[in-house]
Amino acid sequence: MEFLDLTPAESLMIISPASNGIEMMKITLADLLLKKALKINMGHHNPRFLKKNCKSVIIIKNKSNNLIFKPHEEILIELLDNGELELKEFAKILFKKVKSSEYKNSVRIPLIDRNYFKRQRKMLLALVPYETYILTEEGLKVKSMITELLDEAECLKKWIKEDLGHAKAYLSVVGSHIFLTGVYDVKDIQKFKKILSYIKPEAKTSDYYNYYLYTIPDGFLDNQGDLRNFDFIDISFFDNFESLDDFFCEFKDELNDIEGNSNGDGE
Q1: Rounded mean pLDDT of 205-234?
Q2: Per the confidence metrics, is the pTM higher than 0.90?
Q3: What is the mean pLDDT of the segment spanning 193-218?
Q4: Res. 48: pLDDT tops 50
Q5: How far is CA 173 from CA 25, 106, 267, in A?
Q6: Under a CB-based contact definition with an 8 Å cutoff, are residues 133 and 110 in contact?
Q7: For the chain, what is the domain count?
Q8: Which residues are CB-neighbours of 10 under 8 A, at least 6 positions away?
Q9: Given the DSSP bridges, would you call strands 211-212 and 2-3 parallel, antiparallel or unpaired?
C-alpha cells in the first residue's frame, strides 16, 4: 500500500489552490484533534449580561503523542507549548501570529519541494509581472488520485448498506480527508464508524484500494499494509458538537475579523 503522506490542508491546496488559508487552519486543527495530537476539555462559563450558560472549549496538547508534524501543523501545536488555551484565545493568538496568506504558504512550500507545484511568471494587463503557482505534471497526477477518492464519498451510504468491507476500506484510505468531500458531517462519520467497528474479521483495505491519502502511525497496519482499526482517529471529541461549523463557532468573531480584513492571499 502506498502513502501519499498528505494532510487534509495539503490535499485542499492541491485540489483547490485558490482556497483560503483560514480554511486550511480550520481543517488542520480538526485533523490534529482527530489524530489525538491535541485534546479538548469542555467547560461552561456564564459571561456577564448573559443568562444562558455557554460552552467553553479548552484545547490541550497531548504530550504523549509522538507523531512527526509538518510546518503548518507545528504552527498550531506550538501555540500550546505554554499550556492549555480556550478556543477563542487560541484563535486570537493564531491569527495574530500568522496571516491567512502566510499560513497558506506554509502548506504550499513543502508541496513545491515535492514537485507538486511550481512558480510561473505572468503579466498583469501585459504590464506588471507577477508570480503565481501552478500544479506540475506530478501534482496533477496526485490531484487526480485525491479527487478520485473524494468523489467516491457519494457511494459510502450505499456501501454501508451493501458492502461494509468496501465502506471500511474507503474510510481507511481517506481518514479525516472525508470532511473535504462536503458530503458528510460529524454525526454521519460517528454513525459510520460505530457500524463498521463491528466487522469481524477486519476488512482488508488492499482488496479495494492500493494507496492511502495520509500516513498511518506505526502499529496500526498489519504486514500486508491493511489498517487494523481506526483507534488513531478519535471521533469522540465531536460528541459535544453537531457539526464542524458548530465547533468553530467558538471563535467565529475572530475568524470573521480576519476574513473581513483579508483582501486576498498575496499570490
Answers
A1: 82
A2: no
A3: 83
A4: no
A5: 22, 25, 32
A6: no
A7: 1
A8: 70, 72, 107, 110, 111
A9: parallel
Report pLDDT digits (tens) over 49-95: 333 445 678 999 988 888 889 999 999 999 998 889 999 899 989 98
Query: Has residue 267 been placed in a domain?
Result: no
Residue 218 lies in a domain: yes
The answer to whether residue 104 sits within a structural domain is: yes
Where do we find the cell 505572468? 122
Q: Which domain holds residue 230?
A: 2-261
Residue 90 has which C-alpha cell? 487560541
pLDDT level of residue 201 (50, 70, 90 thresholds): low
Contacts of 242-248 spanning 24+ positions with Cβ under 8 A: 242/185, 242/186, 242/187, 243/185, 243/186, 243/187, 244/26, 244/30, 244/179, 244/185, 244/186, 247/30, 247/57, 247/186, 248/26
What nine digits make up the cell of 133?
Answer: 503557482
* Residue 266 belongs to a domain: no
Under a CB-based contact definition with an 8 Å cutoff, are residues 135 and 14 in contact?
A: yes
